[in-house]
Each structure stands twice: as C-alpha cells, then as structure tokens.
Give the backbone structure.
Amino acid sequence: MFLSDHRVVSHLDLDTFFVSVECLKNSSLKGKPLLIGGKSDRAVVAACSYEARRFGVHSAMAMKLARRICPHAIIMQGDMEEYSKFSTQVTQVIRDKAPSFEKASIDEFYIDMTGMEKHFGCAKFTKELKEKITRETGLPLSYGLAANKLVSKVATNEAKPNGQLEIPFGEERSFLAPLPIQKMPMIGEKTAQTLKGLGIRIIRTLAEMPVEMMENVFGKTGIELWRRANGIDESPVTPYREQKSISTEQTFETDTIDIVFLQSQLVKMTQKIAYELRKQNKLTGCISVKIRYANFDTLNKQAAIAYTGSDHLLIPKVKELFTKLYDRRMLIRLIGIRFSHLIPGNYQINLFDDTQELIKLYQALDSVNNRYGKLMIMRASGQMG
C-alpha cells in the first residue's frame, strides 16, 4: 500500500505493440511466431511476437539471422500509420482519465498519481485504466506501480505479458537487487560488458559498489548507475503536450537562382530538423516546403509520408517537393521546411527497411552530435541525392 505523502508513478506499456495491432487486424496471426520488419537479408527485426522470442529472436536482430533460427516465422512489413492510430486511441483514453501523464514513446506511458491514494487508490485506478484501454482498443498492456519512473518501468517489464506489479514504497532496492544488470534502463550491451568485467552481474552488486569507484570507471554516468541500482530516481513525469510541428527557414542575403546551392541548403536544413526530431524522440508524417520569391510571392507544397525521422528518407522527399514547387525560375529570397503530424517514437521504431549498417551510422552520428550539443557532423549532400 502506498502512503499519500510519497510519490507514486505508474508505468504502462502496450505488450508487443506492433504485433498486437497486426493480430487485431488478422486474428489468424495470434499464437504464431511473427516478425515485423524489412524482408531483405540486410533488414532488421522491428518487433516480434512472444512466440518468436522463444526461439531467441529479438528486436534489432538481423532479419537473416531471425529467419534462420525461426524459419517458420511469418514476416510482415508493418504499418506505422496504423500503429500511430492505435497509439492515439490509447493516449485519448489515458488523457480522459489521468490527471497528468507523459507519453514516453508510441507505446509507453507514465502517470504521476502522487496524492491520489486518499481519493481513488492508485492500484485500483491503474487496474481500472488498464482494463478500460484493453476494452476500448483491444490491446493488451502491462503496468508497474512504484515510487519513481525507473522502478515502475522495471516492474512493468517483470509483469509482462499482460500483467501488473506493485512495488511498495521503501522496497525499491530489494526489488531491484536480484535482477540481472541488463534489466536496468540505461545499461546497454557495452556497459553490461564493462560491468561484468568488474564482476558485476546483478543489480545488488552494483548497488553495493563504492560510488567513488563507479565514478572513476564511468564518470558522471557511474554515479547515475549507482543511484539507479539503489532505486533512486527523481526524474519528473513530464506532462504530455502534442507538438504540432518543427520547422526551419533561411532567408538569403542575396536572392538566388543557383539550384545546386539551393538543394545543398535544403539538405542541410533537413538534416538539422531531422536531428532535432530524433533528439526529441519524434517521428514526422508530413513534410512541407516553402519558397518565397524575390517579389515576396510565397508558395507552399506538402506531402504525407510514412512516419520517419531518418535523413535518407526525408531528404529525397524535400527535394521532390521543392522541384514541384519551383516552377517560375525566378530569384528566390527564402526557403523553409516544416515537419508536422508528429508522433512520439525513436529511430528504432522506424526500422522496416533499414539495414544494421544504416542503424549504426545514425546512432554513431547522433551520439557525436549529442555529445557536443549541436549538429557537428553532417552527411555529404551528394550521398543522399
């Protein structure tokens, strides 16, 4: 039981979201090993059913390997527009019921329920919300209830599939202690390997390490790892507000008709706001291009696209729209690009046609750019043509 003077956070996660949507559309897929992603050998798995996971398949695995270890799996391309519709439905149910919530991704939500215990009962409220979401959308989900976001998320993962788990206040550390280090958010493959090299395989061992040693090995990240291992997390639930669009414009000092120059600027501008999308964990479903001629006439053209945050998909569409729009052969004063119809989601969601090499390239470029806080590295415009 939670006390009303303590923070209470619930974490809700739609179980195998893409797979669940496909099974709603086609009930014959239920109970079968299902892989969602590109069908080429170099593509990767975007999502997979629990039946496929039993064979060792996991998201971001090379599709060639997934087919080898689970040869009878059904492979589907996936439909981001359909998934986003279901995500919107779930968001609306939560918005109607919850006092404050954060949409962490297309299929993941946090609700701050601090102070609600004395009025509704946090466990009762979350259980009823879970039932309402499944009743109205048909989607299964799991949830965790705890004193902070970190522990509630780990609790959700332990409750899957289609379950719930409550971690009473004060028991965060003991709940985390026996779990493998890979189950703690923030610990990826490389960090796990380093920790194992230090003899750390479960969270209890990490929590008992001297924090000074963790800082020496990992820097500030080491301090955060130690805090999380001890169940400490003060990160707030950030209220969800839909961002309508992200855009950029450039006004030239001298009006120009230089197409090569204009196209290079479009590439740079697209890369800039695509990077901002990925930083915010957003995907766009609509692109708009704007031209302002020297006589101040202003024209716009837009197109709906499959949801993405990837430069190599956005740049050709921006160039295509510009080519259709620029038909007067007059001097141009300004060009602009806007991405709208934004939904939460990170690059990993958009893997349906991508190769492992391309994924690693984006991750490496964004990692360097994030380190310096701005777009330091950009792809050559010719590579994206």
Notes: The domain at 174-229 is CATH 1.10.150.20 (DNA polymerase; domain 1). Residues 381-385 have pLDDT under 50 and may be disordered. DSSP finds 14 helices and 13 strands in the chain. The two ends are 59 Å apart (CA to CA).
